[in-house]
Amino acid sequence: SGGARGMAGLGAPEPGTGPGPVPATRVELTVSCRQLLDRDTFSKSDPLCVLYTQRPGSHQWREFGRTEVIDNSLNPDFLHKFVLDYCFEERQNLRFDLYDVDSKSPDLSKHDFLGQAFCTLGEIVGSAGSRLEKPLTGIPRKKCGTIILLAEELGNCRDVATLQFCANKLDKKDFFGKSDPFMVFYRSNEDGTFTICHKTEVVRNTLNPIWAAFAIPVRALCNGDHDRAIKVEVYDWDRDGSHDFIGEFTTSYRELARGQSHFNVYEVVNPRKKMKKKKYLNSGTVTLLSFAVEAEHTFLDYIRGGTQLNFTVAIDFTASNGNPSQPTSLHYLSPFQLNAYSLALRAVGDIIQDYDSDKMFPALGFGAKVPPDGHVSHEFPLNGDASNPACCGIAGVLEAYQRSLRRVQLYGPTNFAPVVNHVARSAATVLDGSQYFVLLIITDGVISDMAQTKEAIVNAAKLPMSIIIVGVGQAEFDAMVELDGDDIRISSRGKVAERDIVQFVPFRDYMSGGPGAGLSMAGLAREVLAEIPDQLLSYMKARGIKPPPVPPMPPETP
Description:
This protein is of the alpha+beta class. The chain contains twelve helices and 28 strands. The strands form seven sheets. Strands 17, 18, 21, 22, 24, 25 and 28 form a seven-stranded mixed sheet that branches. A four-stranded antiparallel sheet has the order 4-1-8-7. A four-stranded antiparallel sheet has the order 3-2-5-6. Strand 24 (435-443), helix 9 (450-460) and strand 25 (465-471) form a beta-alpha-beta unit. Helix 6 (340-352) packs across helix 11 and helix 8 (417-427) packs parallel to helix 9 (450-460). The longest helix has 15 residues, at 393-407.
């Protein structure tokens, strides 16, 4: 740990890998501090940073790891990185404690505490350039300095290669015509065996085929080892499946990456023919026509490049929820616990707010008679301000929801299309990938405007938006399952949705009540948000939008 005392291993326990979703990606955290407290009399502090994490649903902090100790520095840039599994759909709480190390003891109580900072991994990733600066706190009446956290996605080789080949003078294998050639690509494994990784299409009746270009992850071609052998076999296709072997050649990713050149013309050799015939040269040649490589972009590339998630909430105020003044109502405001609407809102909102820099969330209601004249509205602002329905933070949305309950009369019917179109109008104004819109609809059930909602969703599928529907209460949610196009893509008037943008989750599956309620809310958030990263990527890909470069670092404060 260059120049610094290696103390990363000072009694640090193994990182905990609890049960949870498959991590979407791994993130490397770099830690720096500025203007730390000076605790040493004759020299500067010798800082060490300790990272703690929590398992999903647990409030217990577990030590994850330690940096090295940097001698005599109040502005350390730690070399040791923390590598964490990043899951968009989970709230991943982090705590950073700083100590001035005075001895070789691994026991932290033997060292001077310099301050701490709390944040979520989403907060770091969602900050501009995935760089978060926070004040250190924890020592009364003292300024403890600041901590700077930088998150970088670990590239597990996300490159995709696009290749095109042609062949010349392949052996004629068919009695009545020429050959019908195709190629099969294999990557070699550590143990010398081969694994198939690509098959070209068949080009009919020619000895000089030009195959179509194909894209393949570099990982699939060579498992990240650019010098590993790639074997290619050439066959003549037969209808009965007994394809005739024409010949083979080997290459490597490094060779192919040289592109079209005399290095990438290969003799196709049939070893059996070569052994039998002295004058045998080859069974034709295969030439690489073009080679290109591009990085496959990830959700984090867009977030780091500045894409903002805009979060809108729509709440069902129809009479089927029950009279809000009665404890049996789904809208009942108990002094002792949050109702299902508030819980669902909190579970999803707490995670998504890390990716929205202004923390202003439009909040709408539908299916109620609203003042002053008592007309039925299907997109009324919970804060009463039609020109700006945005509330400040999730707390602001909850407050506006509770105020609305006292102001409006629950009525009906249950129409979704107006709120879907409301968000779609906003999404249609920013198609450049700088913003992505997420609409959370919380409802007690049976939808009245199915045809209009389907049409609204099919139109919205072309836009940068996703829709999450959380069903509360005990109703049958068959219609919601239909809107969630996981099994059959939704369509309207013969037009099929371009992307699957709806995710439906029944709230009752996560209602455990009691002390475990926190865990079930984490489960709800996980289920509801799991598809958002891929839905955002599918929009960007369909529109050919590349993530912008990461914004430059702000100059350091002296």
